[in-house]
Write a structure and sequence with these properties.
It is built from ten helices and eleven strands. The chain has about 325 residues and is an alpha/beta fold. Strands 3-2-1-4-5-6-10 form a seven-stranded parallel sheet, with helices on both faces.
């Protein structure tokens, strides 16, 4: 297959490029920087305007757009503008490039996020729910902003007409891999230094997905022509934060973890250049589309996944 990954130099993009390249596919990564020592080809683009890069989409089996400024930052006016623009402009650019192809891609997969759902410590949401976050939700303004960003992102994607091209929006939760700088690397670092206790109230859910299941699910969706629209990319077993961290400590062989109360997270977030909602919001989602389509999760349970991650992290870090 020919796989084009737009904005594919981040953690998720690298996971996908590595997977598809390893199993013998042609992988082209569109990046703002054309320099790369990767085994796949890297082509420069600006994420906004059409250019020579658009020819790479011709006859692709799948175009996967992952471009967008990280939400792990302070929500200043400038950062808010860049968070929205980077998602909208890259989606529009990819859509225009697909519309210009002579042989259209078979499927266009666009990044999205599970942050589109409401904060919930009880109800778990599948893709069929209309109870989305944002307007009218009694939560901090930064939480509403994050949800509205995803809705704007998906609305932009939905509005672009590409006849004959199947479209999928990846509502990604935490994509867990042992790679340096990823979410798991950060969490395990906290655990190893005795700081891996409950974060905030501990009742907020963490929805997550093992990297092996993530890349297999994307491959599965490319091959299953019945799948379109939003897809929750998460394990079928989300967990409350307190339980999630307890299992991680056990997998790492660490008995004690200092907890971080909500007020400490709110104080520390500006110092770390981030927003507290990333830890405090309960993301409680289930992979309804994948389960109905018969996708077989290899790592549905966090205890098995956590042990696998710790073992692989140790192998990678000596």
């Amino acid at each position: 297959m020919k796989i084009v990954l737009a904005g594919g130099n981040g953690q998720v993009g690298t996971l996908l490029a590595r997977h598809f390249s390893r199993i013998g596919n042609e992988v082209i990564v569109l990046s703002r920087s054309a320099s790369s020592r990767s085994p796949w080809r890297v082509v420069q683009w600006d994420g906004r305007t059409l250019g020579p890069w658009s020819r790479e989409l011709e006859g692709a089996d799948a175009v996967i757009n992952l471009a967008g400024k990280t939400i792990n930052c302070r929500y200043t006016t400038k950062n808010r503008s860049e968070i929205i623009a980077s998602r909208v402009e890259s989606t529009e650019a990819v859509g225009s490039a697909i519309q210009a192809t002579q042989v259209t891609p078979k499927v266009w997969i666009n990044a999205s996020a599970a942050g589109i759902y409401r904060h919930s410590t009880s109800a778990a949401f599948t893709e069929t729910t209309t109870w989305l976050g944002g307007e009218g939700e009694a939560v901090p303004e930064t939480w509403r902003f994050a949800a509205e960003v995803v809705k704007t992102w998906e609305n932009t994607f939905d509005a672009i007409e590409v006849p004959g091209v199947r479209k999928i929006a990846l509502r990604t939760t935490l994509a867990i891999s042992p790679d340096k700088g990823g979410v798991f690397d950060v969490l395990l670092g906290l655990v190893r230094y005795g700081l891996g206790g409950t974060q905030g109230p501990g009742t907020q859910f963490i929805s997550w997905m093992h990297d092996k299941d993530y890349v297999r699910a994307v491959e599965f969706m490319i091959g299953d022509e019945s799948i379109s629209g939003p897809v929750n990319m998460g394990s079928p077993v989300p967990l409350p934060n307190a339980e999630f961290m307890r299992i991680l400590r056990k997998a790492a062989g660490v008995k004690i973890g200092l907890s971080a109360p909500e007020f400490a997270l709110k104080i520390g977030a500006p110092i770390l250049g981030t927003e507290a909602w990333l830890v405090l919001k309960s993301i409680n989602v289930l992979p309804g589309v994948l389960e109905r389509a018969g996708f077989d999760f290899q790592y549905p349970e966090w205890d098995v996944a956590a042990r696998n991650m710790v073992r692989r992290w140790k192998q990678m870090n000596g």
